[in-house]
Amino acid sequence: MRFPDLDAVERHLNSLVNYEQAFPVGGARNRPKLDPSLRAIERLGLSRCLPACVHVAGTKGKGSVVSFLEALLAPDNPLLSFTSPHLMSFVERVRGNGLPLPEPHWQRGFEEITNTLARDPAISLTYFESTWIMFLWAARQLNTRVHVVEAGLGGTWDATNVLEDSMAVLTAIDYDHTEVLGNTLTEIAADKSGIIKSKSRVVVGRQQEEALRVIRRAARAGQARAHYFDEEYRWVPQSGDLFRYEDEEGSIEGLSLTTPGLHQRDNAAIAIRVARLLAPALPPSRIRERLRSCVIPARQQLFPGSPDVLVDVAHNPVSFRALAETLRTQYTGRKIVAVIGMMSNKDARASLAALPELVSDIVFVELNSPRSASPQDLLVITKELGFNADVSTSREEAFQELHRISAHDLGLIVGSFYLAGDYLLWRMRAGIA
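Given the sequence above, the corresponding structure tokens read:
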């Protein structure tokens, strides 16, 4: 099979099973899901042990931690990262020094991967597994020195958990994907803690007590050296938008982020702790400068204009609550109109319940996914919650209307990676700076 351009790669990926797009999410958990990746790795002669490898799992903040680590570490060492889902293009999933891999790498990689695996028809990879194997292929080709991997769904049986000798990072754990991971924080935390490797290091972000108990047990069982938020490292507020980071190696004063939200300070603190473990000589001045210039797309990203538009990938209750906190503290008094689309497996009622009194009007849209929640069903929920809401005939119409309306001074795009990505593409094609 040949891949003359990126379109050919995308067509191939779109021909594969994609549990991000179709039910059942993740499939049944009655058998290990590591086998396809393990067999592909063996057939292709790829390595499961990558130098300076960081494996990130959690419910909220994984992608932000990856972006912060890229900003902190990539300027000094060739760094390869893997993340999902993407916003505008699948090439965002494998990045070299924070930038998507050039087109020739995707072409050559998929030619070798697909042609080699075609010799063993028993190996059948999904969309996610194929991009994951592409990351491992790129790590071999580029001989990168630092590797940052975001787990997909959960941890224990996620395709990325074939890694060996990796540093585990556990961001905030909360309720999401309960149909697969379990209905309690204990079950969810147990699944995500499965990335902790024996006698390795683990950096643990701010956690609820129920999840923290599970993580502590997993770390002790694996004889892992654990670094816990608020015990071995933390951040404390300073004046204005500044904060200070503290750990056993000392403090870093005057930190600031372009990405708003107190939860992003948690994510930045995780990244600093990891960076100082991997690169002890990294000066505080560089940490300060690199965090200050790090822009994370669609994480409460503000586009100034008439009106201003805030774009966020919040898609579950915990991320909606974080968004609500930002609206409450930074956009008080603004009249906000929101365009919202969500996936049908998300807890829409608990998510939307974070927004009353903050958003004046909502327009619901259908996502470009078979798993999209029905806008009419979302409308029923918001009527019960007391919102003024309506349904748009299309996403494009909703985006256009958001920019036409003069009765509000802040537009909000929220509810899904798919919606945020579609808006960013629409904005780019419309020539809006």
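The longest strand covers residues 250-255. Try to locate this feature in the token string yourself.
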